[in-house]
Amino acid sequence: MRVSWQERFADSPDVLRSESHPRTIIPIHNFAVGGDEFVTMAGPCSVESERQLFSTAERVRQAGARILRGGAFKPRSSPYAFQGLGLEGLKLLARARELTGLAIVTEVMSECDVPQVAEYADILQIGSRNMENYALLEAAARSGRPILLKRGMVATVADLMRAAQCILSNENWQVMLCERGIRTFESTTRNTLDASAIAVLKLVSHLPVICDPSHASGNRELVPVLARIGVAGGADGMIVEVHPSPDQAWSDGDQSLEFDQFDAMMAELQPWIALNCAARTATPMTAAAEALQ
Ligand code: PEP
Ligand code: MN
Questions:
Q1: Which tens digit of pLDDT belongs to each residue from 96-115?
Q2: What's the rounded Cα separation, in Å, for the pair 35 and 197?
Q3: Alpha carbon nearest to ligand 1 atom 2, residue
Q4: Ligand 1 pocket: which of 69, 85, 150 to mutate (most atoms <8 Å of CB)?
Q5: What is the pTM of this model?
Q6: Which of 216, 219, 235, 284 has a 20 to 30 Å separation from 181 between CA atoms?
């Protein structure tokens, strides 16, 4: 017997879309995520210095980004790797917002840090390694800030939906679901972009879906094409790493775009974004979801 989406995701009831709740639109400053605009979040993996951050912020703004990304608290695989500038990084992000008008997304790694990060950031990022840290999810939810929830690298779509449900259950409906690639047997890319997950999430959930082509690929040559796959899959936005000199980056340099590459990617994506918006209007996802029941 065929299992319906409702049954499959029965433990994430508030995350599921319905006729009365087809999509969630999250207002941020003077724009929104999950509406008709494809929203780009861009910036360095880690905040390193004033010069690095401000120059990147200005360039990504000029190319059409709405949100500046940058880690001040960094989850690193090695305890000897750079762990982030902490509070100093948050202050630089806030200053970059003042200078450019971009909104800020930055990761919070521990529930103890939530009040401080929420004071500076517009959007709290829950990283892949913390997707199932329920104490952190609850604290982040209670901050009232919108949340970018990154899929765990070994988490199923149902696990991601459950983590989102935890945030919704803690009275915060402003959740963005982020597909950032998962671990598979494939080793030519850092992770494997699960394009199916983007399609499934768009079909079954009302929450906005964000594609991360940087962590999915681990390789800047592949970032533009994975971004295009995200657009074609119906993502509501993307989060991309950009650095003034990627080869000198303190983290994730291999997957960070140079400024010119970011400009070119943004320009090349525009016709795809327009095409996808037209397709969405022609076949609303609700109709597609009903057809699949
Ligand atoms: C990041 O965004 O820099 C990051 C560490 O992402 P993830 O949690 O997806 O690995
Ligand atoms: Mn990174």
A1: 999 999 999 999 999 999 99
A2: 20
A3: 45
A4: 150
A5: 0.95
A6: 284
Expressed in angstroms and rounded, the spacing between residue 215 Cα and the centre of ligand 2 is 6
Ligand 1 pocket (Cβ < 6 Å) reads: 45, 71, 75, 127-129, 150, 180, 215
